[in-house]
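Support request, please re-run this one:
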Amino acid sequence: MGSNDTSGYYRKLIPQWERVYPSTAALQDAWDFYSECGWQDPPKQLAAPLQQLQWNTGRILDYGCDTGVMLQFFAQHFPQATLYGVDINRSALRQGRGLFPELNLVESDGLDIPFRDGYFDLIFLCAVLKHVRFEDRANLFAEFRRVARFLYVVEAHSESKRTEEKHGFTFYYSDFREELGATLTELHFSRAGTDFLALYDLSGAG
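Re-run finished. Output below.
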C-alpha cells in the first residue's frame, strides 16, 4: 500500500517512539489518564458504542497497540475474541509480549496492515490518527476497509486542520469527524472530556 517514502517517514520516528513509549503496562493507568482528560467513567464510556458490533471472524486489531494494554479491555468484554495488535515500536511490542503472551502482537512498518482481506471484525484506533500525515490518511482508511468491518476511533477532539510540534513528534490535527465521515459510515459519535469516540461501519465505504 505505502510507498518507500511513506514508510521511510514513519521508520525515522522509531527511535523517538522507543524513547517515549511504551506508555503503560496496566489498564488502570490508562483509565487514570482518561480521567485526567475529563472522562467521567472511562470503562463504561469506552464500552458503550461496542454494543452495535456484529461479529463474524471474532478477531480484533489494535492498530498502534503500544504494549497491547488496551486489548485487555477488549478481552474483558469479549472473552471469546482473538486479539491482535500492530505497532512500529519494537520496544513496546517486546514488553507487551512479556506482559501479555496471549496476545498476537506484530511489528508493522509504516501504514501497511500485514493481514489478509476481511481478517478482522474490528480495528481499534486510539490516539494514533493525529500521528498520521494528512496525505497518508486516504490510503490508511482504504487499508482499514480492506481488512475489517468496523473501525472504532478514540482521539483528541479537533475541529480545525493544523499541525503541532510536541514531545518530538508532529501532530496532524483536522476536523476528524468531518474527515472520517466523508468516506466512512458513522454509527456512533460522542465526546468524553477532551476526546471523541466514534464507531464506523467500513462495509461498502469508499
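The longest strand covers residues 148-156. The first helix runs from residue 4 to 11.
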